[in-house]
Automatic annotation (TrEMBL):
Binding site for heme: H28, H70, H113, H155
Pfam family, one: Sdh_cyt
Lineage, broadest ranks: Bacteria, Bacillati, Bacillota, Bacilli, Bacillales
Protein name as annotated: Succinate dehydrogenase subunit C
Record-linked Gene3D superfamilies: Fumarate reductase/succinate dehydrogenase, transmembrane subunit (1.20.1300.10)
Ranges annotated as spanning the membrane: 12-34, 54-76, 97-115, 142-165, 177-198
């Protein structure tokens, strides 16, 4: 019974990491990338997202609750997992370890980012270009965001590879090699989008 529960939790954890949390990450990166078009471009995109109907409902049930489960169960996996990098050093074992490390980094980063933006907005602050410009004008915060964003993207891209395996989509060794290259491509592409967005604010 306990084994069945853990199997279900791991599958749910994997699914939520891609849908909806991973999709929200991609959407968030795309919206932030509007900053490369200037202050007005970003503010218009952010205002559009703020104006979505049922926004509070969507944020709660499509973002925060799935993210909370993924984060809590992910911490359990991270601190109970047995890494084999010192014994074997295979590429996948390193990806396994980095998945756990970036998961913890991402959790710290997301918690801080939510505090700086969403919690601040609840107390009357406006989430706009100027807010992010002020945050990222601090060199420490800029590099904190760079590390956090790249960690989140890696965690999503590498997690997507694991999702495809655990859900039986990529079963053969060849399909797993192909998905490795695809997810590396996703990581590089989204990292470019994320870093360009951050540099646009400064």
């Amino acid at each position: 019974m306990a084994g069945n529960r853990e199997f279900f939790n791991r599958r749910l954890h994997s699914l939520l990491g891609v849908i909806p949390v991973g999709l929200f990450l991609v959407q968030h990166l795309v919206v932030n990338h509007f900053a490369t078009g200037g202050e007005e471009s970003f503010n218009n995109a952010a205002h559009f997202m703020e104006s979505l109907p049922f926004r509070i409902f969507l944020e709660t049930f499509v973002i925060y609750l799935p993210l909370l489960f993924h984060a809590i169960y992910g911490l359990y996996i991270a601190f109970t997992a047995k890494n084999n990098t010192s014994r074997f050093g295979f590429f996948r074992n390193w990806m396994f370890m980095l998945q756990r490390v970036t998961g913890v980094i991402t959790l710290v980063f997301v918690a801080w980012h939510v505090w700086e933006t969403r919690v601040a907005a609840a107390f009357g602050a406006e989430v706009n270009f100027q807010m992010m410009e002020n945050i990222l004008s601090n060199p420490f915060m800029f590099w904190f965001y760079i590390i956090g964003v790249i960690s989140a993207i890696f965690h999503f891209a590498n997690g997507l590879w694991s999702f495809l395996v655990s859900w039986g989509i990529t079963v053969s060794p060849r399909s797993q090699v192909i998905s490795t290259y695809v997810t590396i491509g996703i990581f590089i592409a989204l990292s470019i989008v994320g870093v360009r967005a951050l540099t646009a604010f400064i």
